[in-house]
Design brief:
The chain is an alpha/beta fold and 629 residues long. Strand 8 and strand 9 form a beta hairpin. It is flat, with a radius of gyration of 31 Å. 29% of the residues are buried.
Length: 629
């Protein structure tokens, strides 16, 4: 057991946020924490991590439990280099390593009367170092940075030069390399492309500690979670398995609770009815009294949580566009000027037809969002972009920059549609669950999810036959995502979207286009089709290269493969040597602490020298491993 919460409650401004929460987190647990926006997930995580007090209940944890908590807005030191910042995450490891090296030298040159205390301190430091897996610190750093897309970055560059998304990814790297016993991640999948997502899923699946993750990425929860905890109306319920399993179990649980509740209500009503009919009859006084006592003693079942209101989203339109909605020819896009100019993509040719639902995917930084802005004439480009006849476009910008933060919610919509009545606007906002006094709040007071809903409300009023959507689910919780996906599936117009949401990519598009620096590859299907045929496509490319008459290209490819085989073989050998050396060093350390050796100063010095030599050799091998990997 790592940590246990028993009947924990928390109230803010007389409003109960958490009610009698009980939760046990054990070694190797993989818990996905679900709940709509604002339900109290971050509050619960802050309590678990020790950053927030609670009003009632008890929390017990393993002594010295190491917790790593990645918050949604994790701060980095902008003046540090990437190398300084990542090494800061393992500051204690490097300081302990230095202390061990220093005390080893002292032990080699110390008089016998000081050796005992030095040896005890050496053992203490070694235990700390091993607990942090200090021998593999550099390997862990290298593995995590490569997996999260920083393998090609200049580690001497400043943190301040990273984009917002890169800073969030780097903050996660800092948490991961610390290797805490309990890893808490709040929305870790934001700003990750498919390769990074896949790497993170594999990393967390094999992680030696326990993991609690808050995510609205349902594919991610299916891949990582062994259990789902849903926070709803202040109460926590735990389910086995991932997200798909959770949906089925929750539905069945609500059915069972509803049947039990209704059964008890019928039985109680029968008792009340009997009492009402017989209270005046003296012959039935005993039976009436027993039923009154039964009513008084009955433990009333709580009424199952009523199903929360669903978003009701639709995107109607009035005019049918011509057959070809969008045509791009020899399109290229360059951002920046002079020495800072960077070509994102070139030679992009595509045609999107009426009724097609197209999703663009590709690695981070390839220019997907910039492509959407370019086809909307918001960015300059080269080549040809032509929209078809009768096309009316609505645009969802993931940055929500079209909203005036100082305007009220209702004014934000009314400015776009001055002929709409207040009743019409409030009715539409209510479909997005923005109701009552919330409509008079300023936009800046609303959450990111509610700001996104305001934009979708505006899009609904626009009645466009083409939707251009940039990461439309980014701000939404899982309930809102499901409602939006249903609306997009039912939409009869054309969709051009950029998304990393694999659930959406599976359920909405009938075509996926992968953007590359040299153009685009079209896959005529959903996400599963894309995954299946992407492998085939890569194999076909290799086959064409093998059959090519270009001998130079073929020879270069053959040499690269041979070099890669040699590299992997050398890596395997290095890993074996590293493992052997680590075991030998550990054995020597154990031997150096034995009573026979401690009393033999000459023998002890020899062993310490041998440990030092082997440690130097180990450092050399690990450096070689890092360079090769």
């Amino acid at each position: 057991m790592l940590i246990t919460l028993i009947s924990v409650s928390k109230t803010f401004l007389d409003k109960p946020i958490l009610k009698n929460i009980s939760l046990s987190v054990n070694d190797r647990d993989r818990i996905g924490l679900l709940g709509i926006n604002g339900v109290g997930k971050s509050t619960l995580l802050n309590i678990i991590s020790g950053g927030l007090s609670y009003d009632e209940g008890t929390i017990s944890s393993k002594p010295g439990l190491r917790i790593g908590y990645l918050k949604q807005n994790e701060a980095l030191n902008s003046s540090n280099t990437l190398k300084e910042e990542i090494e800061d995450a393992l500051k204690e490891v490097f300081e302990t390593r230095k202390a061990i090296q220093e005390i080893t030298l002292k032990m080699a040159n110390s008089p016998k009367d000081e050796y005992g205390s030095l040896s005890a301190e050496y053992d203490r430091l070694t235990n700390i170092y091993n607990a942090f897996d200090g021998h593999n610190a550099e390997i862990r750093i290298n593995t995590v940075l490569n997996g999260m897309g920083f393998g090609s970055f200049d580690m001497n560059g400043r943190i301040s030069l990273l984009s917002g998304g890169e800073k969030m990814r780097f903050a996660m790297c800092k948490i991961l390399v610390q290797n805490p016993e309990l890893l808490i991640l709040d929305e870790p999948t934001n700003h990750l492309d498919f390769e990074m997502l896949s790497w993170l899923e594999q990393y967390l699946s094999s992680y030696k500690g326990a993991v609690i993750v808050v995510s609205h990425d349902r594919y991610f929860l299916d891949a990582v979670s062994s259990g789902i905890c849903e926070l709803e109306n202040g109460e926590l319920v735990r389910y086995k398995g991932g997200y798909s399993s959770f949906l089925k179990q929750k539905e069945e649980r609500i059915k069972v609770l509803s049947r039990e509740y209704e059964k008890q209500q019928r039985e109680l009503e029968e008792l009340r009815d009997y009492v009402r009919r017989n209270i005046a009859k003296s012959s039935s006084t005993n039976s009436v009294g027993s039923r009154v006592k039964a009513l008084e003693k009955a433990e009333l079942l709580a009424k199952p949580n009523p199903k929360p209101k669903d978003l009701i989203i639709s995107f109607p339109f009035d005019i049918e566009p011509h057959k070809t909605v969008l045509e791009c020819k020899d399109m290229s896009l360059t951002v920046g000027k002079g020495e800072n100019a960077k070509t994102l993509f070139q030679n992009l040719n595509l045609e999107i037809l009426k009724g097609e639902k197209v999703a663009f995917v590709g690695r981070n930084g390839i220019g997907k969002s910039s492509f959407l802005k370019a086809i909307l004439k918001k960015l300059p480009y080269c080549g040809s972009v032509k929209w078809g006849g009768n096309v009316k476009i609505s645009y969802f910008d993931q940055e929500l920059s079209s909203l005036d933060l100082n305007a009220t919610v209702i004014d934000s919509v009314h400015r776009k549609f001055p002929t709409k009545t207040e009743y019409e606007i409030r009715s539409m906002l209510a479909r997005f669950l923005i109701e009552d006094e919330d409509v008079f709040k300023r936009v800046k007071e609303m959450s990111g999810a509610n700001r996104a809903k305001i934009v979708f409300c505006i899009i609904s009023f626009e009645r466009s036959n083409a939707l251009v959507l940039d990461e439309p689910t980014n701000h939404l919780d899982y309930k809102a995502k499901e409602a939006l996906e249903l609306a997009l599936r039912n939409y009869e117009g054309t969709i051009i979207a950029v998304s990393h949401d694999r659930y959406l990519l599976q359920s909405v598009p009938n075509k996926i286009i992968e953007m590359t620096s040299d153009g685009a590859v079209v896959y005529n299907g959903n996400y599963d089709y894309y995954k299946e045929h992407k492998v085939v496509s890569n194999a076909q490319v290799m086959e064409k290269k093998d059959k090519s008459n270009n001998a130079k290209e073929y020879e270069a490819n053959r040499k690269n493969k041979a070099e890669d085989r040699k590299r992997r073989a050398k890596l395997m050998n290095l890993e074996k040597e590293i493992g052997i050396l680590q075991n030998e060093i550990e054995d020597l350390k154990i031997l150096s602490a034995s009573q026979d050796v401690v009393s033999d100063y000459v023998r002890l010095s020899e062993i310490l020298d041998e440990i030092s030599n082997k440690q130097n050799k180990l450092d050399e091998l690990e450096t070689q491993w890092l360079e090769l990997s």
